[in-house]
Amino acid sequence: MEEKLPKLKRVVLAAPRGFCAGVVRAIEIVNTVLQLLPPPIYVRKEIVHNRFVVERLKQRGVIFVNELDEVPDGATVIFSAHGVSPAVREMARRKNLRVIDATCPLVTKVHLEAIRFAQQGYSIILIGHEGHEEVEGTMGEAPHCTYLVQSVEDVERLQVPNPEKVAYLTQTTLSVDDTAEIVAALKRKFPKIVGPRTDDICYATQNRQNAVKALAKQVDVILVIGSQNSSNSQRLKEVAISNGCPAYLIDGADHIRTEWLIDAESVGVTSGASAPEILVKQVIQRLQELGATEVVEFRLTEERVQFAPPPELRELLEQNPLVDEILPVR
Ligand code: 0K2
Ligand code: SF4
């Protein structure tokens, strides 16, 4: 067995961490559809941005596709938690697909705000990351009047047709602090700008960032469990680093490099909103093998958010009253 790290003593787990209500709902939707509808079941894009989750579902028969043209007409398709643009919904209609929509209700809320602002004649400034699926979906609601900004510099460069009639929205998984700076720059440039009270960053993103901030003051290094394409997980790593603690984003225990921990007495662990708790357990076990003797949890706040399944799934569940007995949810 590999040698232990001589200084390593303590593991501190951040809480809240891991699955948010939107991810729990999305994964339960896929599991339920797998039980109730005949295969093949298609999912457009990764249901959530986590390698382990996607691999598990592939093993259970789910076929992941990038676009709907890869799905045969009339088949069943699930939309991912990050949402889709109206163009994607339209294509699903044309192909006569049976759609089960796993878009998180908090993402849908942002889409509805985009529709409302567009109807009222606003130019919409969306703060978000170019190419991210959630941004593509939200921009698709009003592409003719939506402008994407990713930084304060983008705000400075931005030109809109009427600076008196501007609204802003944000991606749900951004850095709270970086977004506040961009919003402040928008308010300086467009004093009449309207938008959400602070931003559209969701409760789970905020809670996980607040928890990792507090953790950064207590430990020598932080391991964030999540996949590289997970925006909220990337932000947790950045928040830890900008609060003075070295941090690494890993998919799981196998990715831990001992040189990161060589001088650490205490290691903080957190996980993104799409990372399952089993990966946290495996990381703890690995840290114990490396010499950690104490594992504690530092909880900043409780979360009790839950979302109901979408209507198309509720209907399916009503037709299958025994579903609770056959469903190994999550
Ligand atoms: O953080 P991301 O938006 O990249 O997405 P995931 O890692 O899949 O986390 C779930 C949140 C999805 C929607 O907000
Ligand atoms: Fe919904 Fe927030 Fe989870 Fe995204 S991170 S799925 S917006 S609860």
Describe the structure.
This protein has helices spanning 21-36, 51-59, 86-94, 105-119, 133-139, 152-157, 176-189, 203-216, 231-242, 258-261, 277-289, 311-319, 323-326, and strands at 10-15, 41-44, 63-65, 76-79, 98-101, 123-127, 146-149, 166-170, 221-225, 247-250, 266-271, 294-299. By secondary structure, it is an alpha/beta fold. The protein folds into three domains: 2-19 and 203-299, Cobalt-precorrin-4 Transmethylase, domain 1 (3-Layer(aba) Sandwich), CATH 3.40.1010; 21-104 and 306-325, Rossmann fold, CATH 3.40.50; 106-189, Cobalt-precorrin-4 Transmethylase, domain 1. Strands 10-9-11-1-12 form a five-stranded parallel beta sheet, sandwiched between helices. A four-stranded parallel beta sheet has the order 3-2-4-5, with helices on one face. Strands 7-6-8 form a three-stranded parallel beta sheet, sandwiched between helices. 43% of the residues are buried. Iron/sulfur cluster (SF4) is lined by residues 20-23, 81, 104, 106-107, 172-173, 202, 204-205, 232, 273.
